[in-house]
Amino acid sequence: MENTIKTPMPQIQWYPGHMKKAKDIIVNNLKLVDVVIELLDARIPYSSANPMLQEIIAGKPRLVALNKSDLADGKVTKEWVAYFRRQGIPAVAVDAPQGRGIKQLVSMTEELAKPMTDKLVSKGAKPRAARVMILGIPNVGKSSLINRLAGSNKAKTADRPGVTRAKQWIRLGGNLELLDTPGILWPKFEDMTAGLKLAFTGAINDEAIDRELITGVFLQTMAEMYPDRLRERYKLAGDLPSASHELLELIGRKRGCLVKGGIVDTEKAQRIVLADFRGGKLGTVSLDMPPQEDGVAEDKK
Ligand code: G4P
After folding, report:
1. Which of 136, 160, 162, 281 has its C-alpha lying 20 to 30 A from 263's C-alpha?
2. Of 247, 246, 215, nearest to 231 (Cα)?
């Protein structure tokens, strides 16, 4: 991925000890499941992926669910789904709170697990449901997806002794059981551009970032990729100022973020811009494009 933005990285609270612990928990739980669902943010499928996922899951069959697809550019999401499928990874766009794509996700998961469960039966074991766990970075929507999948099956199956302690499983229909604790992975924070995109989407806690920097880069990116969205939302006509601080001032003025003497309250304007993006008020936006050929993803520029 091209790193065009030369800016200091936002602070992210993951240290090697945390990562090791997160990895160990996942590795222990992996022994209990047939399939993993890797949850990505459909707006930034490259930037929201954990950099060590392949290594962590060590060949366990996985499928990709592109969540928050209601906020992403539908055309780009379709391209990502096709991209993953070309890599032999089943993929589906979902919107966990609304339930979009969930039925397809369940049937794809069952299908992916079938060779494992069939193999057990062929070795003489009693047929059992396929077991699955959800993995993803913080805020990508793991809890929302578990809640949506659990639906009316909130009554969990009885505790079943796991490798280290009892696990809670949620039975989904007849053929699937979901581990009710998701695997939490660290984000791709060594990649500066990915880190900035995670900050735009709110995946990184606002208090831990330099909001002025993030909003500046965000506005610059939007002005290049989706200028009409900015014009529409903030009622701006003609060419947008090329300097992001001027663009922010203009937006602040339009939104009435003024303090004494008619000066723009830039902090308030920054909060408005980021909240508008995160809440979908700037329309559907995708900031990562799938690679054209095998390799790393590119900025959508
Ligand atoms: P996590 O377990 O992976 O940390 O994520 P979680 O489910 O807590 O979701 C993080 C935020 O993202 C929540 O919003 C949740 O509602 C929102 N979210 C999850 N999936 C989707 C989706 O498909 N579309 C959209 N638009 N939003 C989604 P929040 O503001 O933190 O909480 P709340 O407003 O739901 O209370």
Report:
1. 281
2. 247
Which atom of ligand 1 sits closest to the CA of residue 98? 23
pLDDT tens digits along 29-75: 999 999 999 999 999 999 999 999 999 999 999 999 999 999 999 99
Which residue has the CA at smallest separation from atom 29 of ligand 1? 139
Residue 88: band (very low, low, confident or very high) from pLDDT cuts 50, 70, 90 = very high
Centre of ligand 1 from the C-alpha of residue 37, in Å: 17
Q: 290 or 6: which carries more pLDDT confidence? A: 290
Contacts of the segment 200-206: beta carbons below 8 A, 24+ positions apart: 200/274, 200/277, 200/287, 201/41, 201/43, 201/44, 201/48, 201/139, 201/277, 201/278, 202/139, 202/274, 202/278, 203/41, 203/48, 203/137, 203/138, 203/139, 203/140, 204/10, 204/12, 205/13, 206/274
What gap in Å lies between CA 73 and CA 296, rounded to an integer? 20
Q: List pocket residues of ligand 1, CB cut-off 6 Å.
A: 67-68, 70-71, 95-97, 136, 138-144
